[in-house]
Amino acid sequence: MEDALRALHQLSLPAPSPAQLLDLLDSHSDAAERVAQLIALASAPGEGSEGDAADLLGADLLTQAVRAILANLASALEAARAAHEKEREQLQKPAAVKMLPRKAHVARSTAALKRAARAEEESGPMRPRLVFDGGPSYVSRASLAELEPISAADMKLVPRRYEGRVLYLRTVAPPVPYVGLLLEGEDVAGNIVPVAVSHATVQPQGMDAAAALFPVGTLIAIKEPYLSPNYAARAAPGKPLAGIRIDSPTDLKVFRKGETGPPGFELAPAAPAAASASLPWLDDPVALETSSEQSAAVTALLAAGRPGAAWRLLQRARTAEKSATPEHLALEGRIRYHAEDWAGAAAAFEEAMALSEASAGSDLQDGAQSLGDGAQSLGDGGILPPMPLQACLRQARAHAERFTLEPSAAEVRGLYFAAAAGARRLDVRTYVGPAAVRDIEGAGRGLVATRDVQPGEVILLCRAVAPQYPSGPPVLRLNLENGLVSTSSQIAAQSGLIHALVDRPELQLPVLGLTAGPDLPYSAFVREPYPVSVPSLREDAHERPAVDAAYVDGVLRFNAFGPSAAIDAASGAVFPRAMPHPLPAILNHACLPNVSTTFHGDVLLSRALVPLPKGIEIVHPYVRGELPYAVRQAQLSKHAFQCACELCRLDAADGDGAQMRARLVAGELPAILARSGSVLKMRVNATEAPDAKEREAHEDIVEALEGIIDRMAATYQPGRGSLRPELFDVFRSCAAHRAVTDPSRSAQCELDALACAGAEAREDWAAPHSGTGEPAAVLSRLPALHLDASIEAMLASSTRLEASGQPECAIRWTATAVWAHDCIIGGGLDVLVDRFGERYGPALRLWQQRFGRP
Ligand SMILES: C[S@@+](CC[C@H](N)C(=O)[O-])C[C@H]1O[C@@H](n2cnc3c(N)ncnc32)[C@H](O)[C@@H]1O
């Protein structure tokens, strides 16, 4: 991989994009040729700087060169597959290991370091990276004291996991960073053992940062080491070589100054870097001398997203100093705030202020500001940005006081606009509305309504645990067994979550208490009662947990929501996964949901779409209910359950009809809708009457649309009712054409579209609004599918009715849009205007004039 990238770099060509890499990894496609041409085109003759590869070689030669480079990459992939398969076979029949002599190891390690330095220099830190996985993954649950030391010479068979044993090594070279880290260790007998650590860091590191984490001479212990014939495949692939592969970084312990070294091993622990300069890898800093050192370290730990370590450090400092200082209390407030303990944070801020007042009016309390309802953005690591103590206190109190109150429109508005402005980690309190965790027959646990709930009520407002926004190089991980490709966001989320669980072991219950897909057995936490709120910081001593990287991957794959998408190479399915929102992850799936879930930065907001009677299961869609039945089933297949929601029951009852419909949707429908779009573009002035030619074009297309409606209608079982999501777009197009030719029938078409998405009309839907109060909506029940497009349907209908001189009918449609939007997202008119104002400004302005708050 690195060789191919270097070769491209030498030709001044860009590295393949992640999407192109995905194409290249698909051994069944002819993508290699396409990618070769695209990459070669990136340096077309005459366009680049003088003397670039295209000028020197000419386009044809250049394409040939790229082809050759990509062919090398393809054979590297093949070699990786072959090595993986061999290792898999050998697992049953391990062979005698052939360890290289020390001299050869030193030469190899020196060359690897040189190569890494050259790659960093030539291709830069943002060069894309590729690693592999697949097959068993290991984690040791034993404590060091339970394990018996082993030396490299005793590890005679490969591949083998040396259960019950621990290998002590001292590093003899700086680490080689790639996605994971490669270390070189020496045991007491002087044998060199290569070690590859996956998820050593949350994002790939440069050589200097990696060297600071593992300075030469660091003493390490590897619990129940797995000796692999291809040790580096998951961290930094290269030629197959026997070495230790660490899948879960909690299997690796680093000894720090002051810690007791391994019994019987004459290896002195290495001195750690100063805690304030560089935080120790995955551990808490120890032995800080001065109060200012402690404060600096706590702040650095918070910024690094390690509130647990910050908390433990603070507690140790407190114990040493006996009485709390205002600075310590302020730090405690920040840590508790980070951990969503608003009441605890408020108490600590208050005490800090009282103490600082007592100690001669410290400036901690100056500059108080009102924070209002607007959501603030949190700083690095999800912490409160620097602000006066009094402001911190207000904010903590506001969150604590609102804890049980349903989020207001102003709060949701603040959340929406903060996220729209690019904020990633939002300062909002969590809220768990009328929902509780219950066992659901045939579906594990789920959430049910604890009372009758009205449409629009907030069910959940939750922040993600340790969300990651990868800013490093693009990383891909190819599973050599099932072809699944994980992208940067998935890998960073996995590494970030492992590190977060080490930092805050109390988060294991909400995170590892989730299931990890049908292929992994439940963790022990799944059997415990699932926590509804975020567990508080643990007061007891910290024992570093063993975190199984494979289980965390499964949890993310089967539970995480998030804005970034990943592609299943096998099925081509695209599904979002990056951020774990623990409690919302307990929601089970239905293609026809009864809540609307939206994402704002790292915050998830779920509101009821329809009335929820007490005890009903709350369900949301893992895959888009608008997709044809067969596609939904294929996308859900990884979960290994059969969805039995109302939509699936109806689609299943349609039998062959559902398949015929899918064919129409994929075949003829797009062409008719495209034609419809072109005809609609003929309307330059919406208020002008169409000439005969235009009218005829609209009438023709309506005929074609009605034809396909009839053919699709024949694919539904008689008596199925109006829930027909595939017809939504067809009726919407009809509405747009009818608005030109026969305006009186346009609103009916929009209503038909909404009914296809699950809405129900009021009997008096066509009557004009009368009186002075707010108009009644035209719907009695909101659609559950095509949510945003449904709001457009309502606003479009309003706009047309207003234009055709029926303002009191129009205003009822706007009222419906306002209601629907409040139930789907909320946040009031400003949010609706921000999202739809550009296209439907006049309709929304009219509403604002008549019913908007001043
Ligand atoms: C995100 S979790 C939901 C919580 C899960 N029920 C639990 O107990 O942890 C997803 C898993 O829940 C189960 N599940 C979700 N929706 C389901 C449904 N409609 N029918 C059956 N099982 C379902 C599947 O096992 C799926 O992989």
UniProtKB/TrEMBL annotation:
Sequence segments annotated as region (Disordered): 360-379
Span of the signal peptide: none
Occurrences of domain SET (ranges): 433-623
Transmembrane segments: none
The organism's place on the tree of life at top rank: Eukaryota
InterPro entries per UniProt: Gramillin-biosynth_MTr, SET_dom, SET_dom_sf
Protein known as: SET domain-containing protein
Organism listed in the record: Tilletiopsis washingtonensis
Source lineage: Eukaryota, Fungi, Dikarya, Basidiomycota, Ustilaginomycotina
